[in-house]
Amino acid sequence: MPYPKLTVDLSKIAHNAKLLADQAHARGISVAGVTKVTCGAPEVARAMLQGGVDMLADTRLRNFRKMQAAGIDALYLLLRAPMLSEVEEVVRLADISLNTEEETLKALSLAAGRLNKTHRVVLMVDLGDLREGIWPDDFIPFLRRVKDLPHLHFDGIGVNLTCYGGIIPTPENLGKLVALAKEAEEVLHYPLPIVSGGNSSSLLLLQSGGIPPGINHLRLGESIVLGRETTRREPVPGAYVDACVLQGEVIEVKTKPSLPVGIIGQDAFGHVPVFQDRGLMRRAIVAVGRQDIAIDGLTPVQPGIEVLGGSSDHLILNVTASPTPVRVGDVLEFTLSYGALLAAMTSPYLAKEYVSGTG
Ligand SMILES: *Cc1c(COP(=O)(O)O)cnc(C)c1O
């Protein structure tokens, strides 16, 4: 396959999924494996299911279509609140959806009625991160207004944190979710099958035993795919952080100054660059750029290599400290941040290769 190439090791994904699903299951918590960062790659979805996740979750219906067309039989949870223009497709493709708006729930109920189905919904509460969710004080009145909509089943309540406001899950804010779930159960007269306590940022709490009893569901993406929790981006002990690796080919290696020569105007993106004089450097260029990936999110795997920057099509490296000389034609490897992986997966310029490297 041509370079640049993104290699995804499915056995590492399955290993990470199993590690986290086992930890969650031991505490009575089920896991949705979140596929959105891989654009709903069926290969990755299968590896997650093989690792033991209980359902698949994604923000986009077209990713569900892709996985379902590939024959993946699973429970599908839609993570982004539906657009009014897609409610019928939501009912067709998703078993459960996360919701925050009365108007949307009414439309989902009508659509489910037309399709002769019952659609399961989870109501999202905003506990301070200021992305989606019903404000806690409004939650019970909201539930009372929508609970008798026909063709819907209220499956639960959930929260999303550490996405917009950077708010960290704690026993206090997740405790508030559990308290709201109890109030909701009194209104609904049945126990909620889903009390969803967040995403990969809830992992540290899970591992330290700090998740309040009553939380019974988590939605995990980055921690499975990249092996990191997301409050500080620390590696999850025992998980692979290199299941996804970018490979690029070196097209130039030269010794040049570290300071540009001449009068500095703007770079290709309209910024005025600032440089530090570090003397002469052995510099390499890899044929990959901002059109393919988010350069800032790349970490070289080989030692002694530093990312200096790049432009649309060129990645510029300092290879002075590389223990083995870097040569034209060499293939260098990089691990990726969430943002870099998101861009890489979305880029039509990057070949994607799914391998099963480890046992
Ligand atoms: C993306 C997303 C997740 C998964 O987040 P990770 O940090 O990748 O684990 C969970 N829930 C919702 C609502 C999301 O949008």
Structure description:
With 359 residues, the chain is an alpha/beta fold. 29% of the residues lie in helices and 24% in strands. It has ten helices and 16 strands. The chain has helices at 10-26, 42-51, 61-69, 87-93, 102-114, 136-146, 171-188, 203-207, 222-225, 338-346; strands at residues 5-9, 30-34, 55-58, 76-78, 96-99, 119-125, 152-159, 194-196, 217-220, 244-257, 280-286, 298-300, 306-310, 315-318, 331-336, 351-355. Strands 1, 10, 11, 12, 13, 14, 15 and 16 form an eight-stranded mixed β-sheet that branches. Strands 8-7-6-5-4-3-2-9 form an eight-stranded parallel β-sheet. Helix 4 crosses helix 5 and helix 6 (136-146) runs parallel beside helix 7 (171-188). The longest helix has 18 residues, at 171-188. It is elongated, with a radius of gyration of 23 Å. The model has no long low-confidence stretch (mean pLDDT 96). The chain binds pyridoxal-5'-phosphate. Residues 34, 36, 59, 79, 98, 160, 199-200, 219-223, 230 line the site of pyridoxal-5'-phosphate.
